[in-house]
Design goal:
It is built from ten helices and 19 strands. Helix 8 (about 230-235) crosses helix 9 (about 245-255). The chain has two domains: about 1-145, Glucose Oxidase, domain 1; about 150-360, 3-Layer(aba) Sandwich (Rossmann fold), CATH 3.40.50.880. The chain is α/β, with parallel strands linked by helices. The termini are far apart. This is Carbamoyl phosphate synthase small chain. It catalyses: hydrogencarbonate + L-glutamine + 2 ATP + H2O = carbamoyl phosphate + L-glutamate + 2 ADP + phosphate + 2 H(+); L-glutamine + H2O = L-glutamate + NH4(+). Its EC number is 6.3.5.5.
């Protein structure tokens, strides 16, 4: 069945349908990873977006039960050049096309994804629709659509839950949490209490955690400004770490500003310079916004990491509190685990804080 990918600048790409055949709209973005399509499609940070894979063949190892970052796909649709017809892997439960159909996830294949990626790089990310028929109204309706501003509210947990251990206790604020963050913490014996994005500081403080982690999530950080006073209060009481959207919110809470990147960073081998340890880490990234480096000067923030290629801010720390954040994913999944040590740094910060409190007492 023929389908059409229509961009808000008027470009139209023709391909073949797979998965669900319903009409779907979203922000068109691209991911440069050669693998990891299952993790990407279930990564909540892709909520509201149509995900283009630049690698020409997708789906060659199928779908398995271990690589979910959330319970179901959160990207609005898949765009690929070619879908593997005969996937093969010992963990495979079903093919990507079978899974897309089961999950009611629209897809389009046979698209020239190289040309499409070049167009996104030139014009920036764009509103897009995938439709069965292009009418006189298709483009006008697409261009008239307003950006979605409640992605975090839709994707955050609605209830508080706990992953209990006898280790240090961390309050995790869920803006669109990846399972791999929980796995990284569980591997280190951390007792994790997960709170919804609308939590207040008192609710967290009443649980007496040893530290706070701000998760990743979708959308514009300026849509979640209600959490900034909460972050400011918590960072004064205990160590704090932010990841991805959590990094941007940490920056906003401390006086910096953010901006939208032309086409974002979405892939698994982004080189980042750790300016504190004087080393290069290859990182997994998925974000469309960044912290403005020029806005750091008048704050108590200090830049700790930068992206090698475009020199955007990839890490921050507070000069006057035990708090830091990174734009990339130290949990990876998929991607290299070069930066996983940051979870250990956070736990060491918590241990030092507790030791200091004991000495003070």
């Amino acid at each position: 069945m023929q389908r059409y990918l229509v961009l808000e600048n008027g470009s139209i790409y023709t391909g073949e349908a797979f998965g669900a055949t319903k009409d779907v709209a979203g922000e068109l973005v691209f991911n440069t990873g050669m693998t990891g399509y299952q993790e990407s499609l279930t990564d909540i940070s892709y909520s509201g977006q149509i995900l283009t894979f630049t690698y020409p063949l997708i789906g060659n190892y199928g779908i398995n039960r271990d690589d979910y970052e959330s319970l179901k796909p959160t990207a609005n649709a898949i765009v690929a050049h070619e879908i593997a017809r005969r996937p093969s892997n010992w963990r495979q439960q079903m093919s990507l096309t079978e899974w897309a159909e089961k999950m009611d996830l629209p897809g389009i294949t046979g698209v020239d994804t190289r040309a499409l990626t070049k167009e996104i790089r030139e014009h920036g990310v764009m509103r897009t629709v995938i439709v069965n028929e292009v009418t006189d109204d298709t483009l006008a309706q697409l261009q008239a659509e307003k950006p979605v501003t409640d992605e975090v509210n839709k994707m955050t947990t609605k209830t508080t839950y706990v992953n209990p251990t006898d280790g240090p206790s961390i309050a995790l604020i869920d803006f669109g949490l990846k399972n791999s963050i929980l796995r990284s913490l569980a591997k280190r014996g951390v007792n994790v209490m997960v709170f919804p994005a609308n939590v207040d500081a008192k609710t967290i403080l009443d649980m007496d955690p040893d530290g706070v982690l701000l998760s990743n999530g979708p959308g514009n950080p300026e849509d979640v400004l209600h959490i900034l006073p909460v972050i400011r209060e918590l960072q004064e009481k205990m160590p704090l770490m932010g990841i991805c959207l959590g990094h941007q919110l940490f920056a906003l809470a401390n006086g910096a500003t953010t901006f939208k990147l032309k086409f974002g960073h979405r892939g698994f081998n982004h080189a980042v310079r750790n300016m504190v340890k004087n080393q290069i880490d290859f990182t997994s990234q998925n974000h469309g916004y960044a912290v403005d480096a020029k806005s750091i000067a008048e704050t108590n923030l200090e830049i700790t990491h930068e992206e090698i290629n475009d020199h955007t801010v990839e890490g921050l720390k507070l000069k006057n509190h035990a708090a830091f954040s990174v734009q990339f994913h130290p949990d990876a999944a998929p991607g290299p685990h070069d930066a996983e040590y940051l979870f250990d740094d956070f736990l060491a910060m918590i241990a030092q804080s507790k030791k200091g409190q004991l000495q003070h007492a």
